Amino acid sequence: MENQDPSQTKQIPTNKELGIWPALIPVFALIAMLAFNVFVFGDDSLSGSNQFVLLLGGAVAAIVGYFNNVEYDKMIDEVAGNIQSTAGAILILLMVGALAGTWLISGIIPTMIYYGLQILNPTIFLAACVIICAVISVATGSSWTTSATVGIALIGIAEALGISVGMTAGAILSGAYFGDKLSPLSDTTNLAPAMAGTDLFTHIRYMTLTTVPTVTITLIIFVIIGLNLDTSGTTDTSAILASIENSFRISPWLFLVPIIVIALIVKKTSPLIALLLGTLLGAAAALFFQPEIVAQIAGTTNLDFVSGYRGVMQAITVETAVETDNENLNDLFSAGGMAGMLGTIWLIICAMVFGGIMEAIGALARISKALLNLFHTTFGLFASTVFSCLALNATASDQYLAIVVPGKMFAKAYRDKGLAPENLSRALEDSGTVTSVLIPWNTCGAYHSGVLGVPTLSYAGYAFFNYLSPFMTLLFAAFSIKIKELSESPKTQTA
């Protein structure tokens, strides 16, 4: 072999390990840009501008990588791998949208709401508010919708009974966020496992370990408060119940569909299979129980094979609404279908771009190393996750970002610590999702305060579930209660 001319030899640049401050530059830049973006756009920031800001954060990370001699192709390959790892989560999100559509037009969701409202009792009004809002939020997957519909009605009832609206709003939001956390229809419940690297139903099962004790304590507190309150008047929900009955055929037989889906979840059936079956059963129930609604959605008065197919497919794929004679219920009885999930999917893809570039330039590894050096214990890692979620809720003012950014930042740290990804996804929800409503300038805090007509600081002290949840997850970590190790869950070792 001939010797090469030294003048023709090209020096291959090598990249060295990032220092902690260069590694944090993209994180600080992202938080600053997101905070300003939310300030400018408010609630509309999720319509696309936040997603683009995540791409800008990725661009900042790429610039840091460029100065550290990280190749462009390496960054793109890491982004592609990150996006590929979320394929399952994206498909599940699409199926969740489809299921929400058929469960609406079949009357399953309205039936849950109908029977939930009937447990209202003046003696245990506050506890009943928690239970009703929990049922409705599980059924709809949305704390926002629950607050804007039944929440408003409950505030009105509280005023008629002479009960503090601050207490009532705290009870409403405690129940609404319990349902939001555990519902497979919730976008945050799908987002957290997607960021952590586990699957939807594993996340939900693992989250019940901290969520059920927290809501139990919350109910006990509200029962004690309620028993010591003087109430007057009645809790009249007859108008709402009549409107639901006039719009849907209500039947307890409709509970069979969610019962079957829950049974499949318990038996650890693949989430996609369970959700697909739930969607198809919901479609069948719609054709049997609500033929008039299906025909109406199809734009006709008579139901036949073609109009039935059209109506069901409309509910599965695009936004669907069932009008009632009660204006307050109309927002409740609408679903976005698969198209309604595209905003969350867009957010996930843009988050994967930011996370992929951060991973490629070695920033996530450097931050994880610093965290592991700073927090030598499992509790320390959980505490840093909770603190990061709280900090992002306060600075970036958005619960989605309080899940996305810490989710990507801490995923490797949990793996390096030998912890299963469901530990991270649970910590993200226990701190990122539920505390957003306690911060007045957060989009969630501003929304719920405006909808319910109750200042954030008036209900924050009574939203027991929301501020007890992060303490519960830290309590479990401090005493090593149900902290799953990575070796115990080989199926969830993807990031």
TrEMBL record:
- Species of origin reads Salegentibacter agarivorans
Give the membrane topology.
Multi-pass membrane protein
The record's family statement is: Belongs to the NhaC Na(+)/H(+) (TC 2.A.35) antiporter family.
Q: Where in the cell is it found?
A: Cell membrane
Q: Name one Pfam family in it.
A: Na_H_antiporter
Query: Which residue spans traverse the membrane?
Result: 20-40, 52-69, 89-117, 124-144, 150-173, 206-227, 272-289, 332-358, 370-394, 459-481
- CC annotations in GO: plasma membrane
Q: Which residues form the Na+/H+ antiporter NhaC-like C-terminal domain?
A: 175-480
> Keywords in UniProt for this one?
Antiport, Cell membrane, Membrane, Transmembrane, Transmembrane helix, Transport
> What molecular functions are annotated in GO for this chain?
antiporter activity
User: What is the official name of this protein in its record?
Assistant: Transporter, NhaC family
